[in-house]
Specification:
The complex is a heterodimer. Chain A is an alpha+beta fold. In chain A, about 25% of the residues lie in helices and about 35% in strands. In chain A, strand 17 and strand 18 form a beta hairpin. In chain B, helix 22 packs antiparallel against helix 23. Chain B contains 24 helices and two strands. Classes of the chains: A alpha+beta, B mainly alpha.
Chain lengths: ~350, ~575
Amino acid sequence: MDAMQKVKVEIRNVSLAYGATPVLRDISVSIAPGEFFALLGPSGSGKSTLLRLIAGFNQAQSGTIIIGGEDITRVPPWQRNIGMVFQNYALWPHMTVNGNVAFGLVERRLPREVIREKVAAALELVGLRDYGERRPGQLSGGQQQRVALARTIAIEPKVLLLDEPLSNLDAKLRVHMRTELLALQRKLGITTIFVTHDQEEALSISDRVAVLDGGVIQQIGTPMELYDHPANRFIANFVGTINLLKGKVGPAGTGVAFDSHALGRITLPQTKAAAGDAEIAIRPHALTLLASGDNTDAGQVWVEGTVAEREFLGEFVRYTVRVGDTDLIADQPHYSGHPIHVPGNRVKVGINPAQVRLLTA
Amino acid sequence: MMTTARSGFTLVQAALALLIAAFLLAFLVVPVIMVIYVAFANPDGELTLSHFASFFQISLMRESFWNSLIVATLSVVFASLIALPLAYFTARFEFRGALLIQTLGILPLIMPPFVGAVAMQLIFGRSGSLNLLLGDWFDINLPIMQGLNGVIFVEALHYFPFILMNLTVALNNIDSSMEESAQNLGASGMRLFRRIVFPLAMPGYVAGAALVFIKVFDDLGTPLVLNVTNMLAPQAYLRITSVGIEDPIGYVISVLMIGFSLLALWASALVLKGRDYATLQRGYSGLARRRLKPWQSVIAYGWIILVLLLVLSPHLGILLLSFGKVWSFSVLPDSFTLEHYMTVAQDSPRMVWNTMLYCGLAATLDVILGTAIAYLILRTRLPLRQSLDFMASAALAIPGVVLAIGYLRTFKGVQLPFMDEMLTSSWILIMLAYTVRRLPYALRSCVAALQQMHVSLEEAAENLGASKRRTIYRIVVPLMAGGILAGFVTSFMTAAVELSATIMLTTSQTDAPMSYGIYLYMQSAAGRGPGAALGVLAVVIVALGTYFSHRLIRSRAAGQQARPLQKIEV
């Protein structure tokens, strides 16, 4: 199967409510042609609703959806030509694999010969060439998902939608299918939007991610941007593990400083910020731990604490260090011979101001 | 086709709903309201209770009222006594009798009670086989078939499967953790059963018991064949056929019958209310089954064999009767002959054809209506769509006699278009009565089929370019096929043995279906043989139909799910 057309998806000011309950509030996203785009959020955040809105199964109260320059807000699902792979695959049990994959092509009144070729090509693409005569019930979970994928790309859709595509697979298969999905998307070049609640999944394969919560897009960015520069407290908490600390921001000399009870004063790298109550976020691996007698580097801010807990996670060791009345999580890389801190030990925690993020909300 | 975002339905859907509503109004709601109106109106059209007063002044009517109530109640009691132990054995013990009990469960349903009633008289009557033997051996005579006893005996034996099946399903749905936690807290044996198991199965029992009550209350054929006329259904029939369609007493009886049906349904709804025991947890495991001790096996098998003999007796009796030359004042017929089948072959091909025609059409209409209503209520946001379901299901509470009286009164004088015939004297009304009365069963089976189908199966079709109409044609109907077929079979089979409405709506021999023919034959002593032969024929047709449709459904299901294969595959 050849590369497909690359199409831009624009969602403008979309709002949707079920009765009095708002599900999506003024959502605007622009997805570039050929992009692999993730909608990430906890359950109930509205991510699946947004996906179904693009497919046409939900109708927004206001706003427009533009695909490839064409306003499709009022077009019924069957005329949109937007492929969707359902979370439970939705394979029809009364048809064979061939019948399932051919379905959309039959609806498009293609000649029999063409349908046969396209079905074979789609099944070939997902590695199920010899499975055409089987029934969906005779396939394993991973195979069923490939059939669902083949069925969707057989119609050569403008956009590919994936609703929690990996959630029904076991852990090992999930990682495998993840890379396979990405490879397929790159090969076809099709604009792909996928919904997931698994941040690791979203960060590992997508070009960009939109994080939703409470029907509002909290942040849109590349996985690295989300991780390194979380826009707010929700993102900081939801994407990865993080230390959050409350305090006050104020001007200090030419720059800005953050004062907190636990850490004292940290001079922040930015040059200006609104003074007042604020919060900072620090990733656990941005903290350095040293035994209390060790020499310290003056480029970092150092505080004293006691190791409260220790978790060994293979690549690194996760320490919970009590500093005053605050717990800090510090991840230290592990290799044989690296110094180990024992719970109860006094330690010094080093904070690199360049790694500290000042949160706005 | 474009769905409007705000209202959520299309014009086609709205038109379909209106069409169905019009049908139900014309052939269910209006006739029933007509019956109720006549019962409460004096000749000037004013509302009055005088008809009810005169009803209760007639001693025969008072007697019939109490008799119907007693018969229905005692039938439920005896049916429960038969069904409870059987259900308990299958749910709690590991033994081979389970299959036997399942067979027991459907056997009586393939033969209408009034057909067996005559045979029961020959076996259990005053001078029947059993009493002749008892008289010879012990010089006693049991009044099993005398008067009301006979009706209760026949009805309880015929309808106990409704309780058995509902109760068995309910017992099988109880999660073993329910029982285990009770055992953990110290309950066991009968206390465990009384405090935990039976209350959890209660909804199933009550649903079955209410159904039996309604069925017995409705049944016109059995009392008539047993010559018991002092009950409500026979009295309604006799008043309307002898006094005439204007006689208000017939309408009063109809209203009383509707009232008791509603009462039974209401009582069962009351028990079920707020007790939707979703007892099966994830990681299903039913009640733990125990192995029977030897002495328990003896009791269990003894009871099953006794019930099996009783249940089979009308079938055997009918078979003997159809082949017997003379059978009276003897344990078995004196000699055997094929004469009765010859008579039937000569007289009744027309009736067999009529049954096929009426029931086939009625069942077809039922599944079309059932599928349409199921789709409208489950897959659209049409306003008032639930009222379609309510109207269609309300037919359950309307006795056949009442519906027939309503038809005769409502369509009095209505002429069929393009034909020189009255609607009330044509077979179309019989067919429509079958359609309306069996619609609730077909509807339930269509709704269940659609409910089991995940919406994403349809959405996937729309996503791939199929319109609503094409989706219904290519996905919904094929996937519902099993449920639709099951609905068709249930409608067809039960309509084939319907008698209450049939007796009242059949106006000529040429339009009569088999059930009416059997009833007619059974009226005279000389007709019993051919009547039995026709009955055997009806049972064979119904049984064959059930068998083949089960096979069809099973082979379809096997092809679609093939779950065991999946294990080999992985």
